[in-house]
Each structure stands twice: as C-alpha cells, then as structure tokens.
Amino acid sequence: MRSGSSRASLSLVLLLTFGLPASGCSFLLVRRPPDRDDRRGTFDCTSSYAFPDIDTGMAIGGAGLMAVSGAVPGVGRVEALGIGFLSAFVFAVSAVHGYRTVSACNKALDEYEPPAQVSPAEPGSKRAE
User: Fold this and answer.
1) What does pTM read for this prediction?
2) CB burial of residue 3 (10 Å; 0-12, 13-18, 19+)
C-alpha cells in the first residue's frame, strides 16, 4: 500500500508530465486571422482542423481516464478522477477555441479580396507622360 505522501508525489509527477505540455494544441498552435482592418496584402492563419481534432481526441481520452479511474495501478481513484477531469476540461476548451478560430480563418480566407494590382503604364499612354 502506498503512503499518502508517495501517492501525492505520483499525482504531482503525472500532472506535471502530462498537464503542462498538454495544455491544448489549439491554444498553442492555432493562429487566428488578422482583424479585417489589418488585412494588408496576404495574411496567414490556421485553416486546418487537425489541431482541434487532436484536442477533441485528448478530451475523450481524459474522459476515458475518469471512466477507468479505479483501474490505474499506483494512482488512487480520486487522483485519477481529478487528472482525467482536468485534462478532459482543458482539451475540450482548447478544441472549442480551435474550431472557432479555424472557422474564422476559413471565413476570412473566403471573403479575402487581394488588393488590385496596378499595372505599369504602357509607353505612349497618358499615364507614362
């Protein structure tokens, strides 16, 4: 049987190992489009749903950890429930953020009209004089 101190240490190690780097792909990697007034020339934003999809899968994994919370060796039921709930929540919120941001990017790209190109004046035209 593990002591309360070693169980808390294991929970802290698990949280730091999986919690901090796994704060959600969409929070870290999805770029929103610039505001309409700031769109000069071309712009870049995330138009792929890959990161929000990964976040959704991780949220389901966190919910799965909650479902098997009593079966994880060396981790108590309460700790597994807490880690599972926390990871499911963070990834779910990140997924929602990602889906909204990618949708905004795709809408901005659909609405984007590149600036009109000014052609050089031809010799002999009024503009060339």
Assistant:
1) 0.67
2) exposed
Cβ proximity of 96 and 56 under 8 Å: no
Residue with tokens 């190109």: 117
Confidence of residue 1 (pLDDT cuts 50, 70, 90): very low
Q: Give how far Cα 62 sits from Cα of 56, 86, 93, 120, 126, Å.
A: 10, 8, 13, 60, 69
Query: If we measure between CA atoms, which residue out of 112, 116, 92 comes closest to residue 104?
Result: 112
For residues 35 and 24, give the distance between their C-alpha atoms in angstroms, rounded to a whole number.
Answer: 24
Retrieve residue 114's tokens: 């590149």
- Give the Cα separation of 80 and 32 in Å (integer): 34
pLDDT value at position 5?
Answer: 53
Q: Are 65 and 77 in contact (CB under 8 A)?
A: no
* Residue 100: burial class (beta carbons within 10 Å; 0-12, 13-18, 19+): middle
Mean pLDDT of 84-107: 92
Q: How far is Cα 94 from Cα 88, in angstroms, rounded to an integer? A: 10
Residue 128 pLDDT: 45
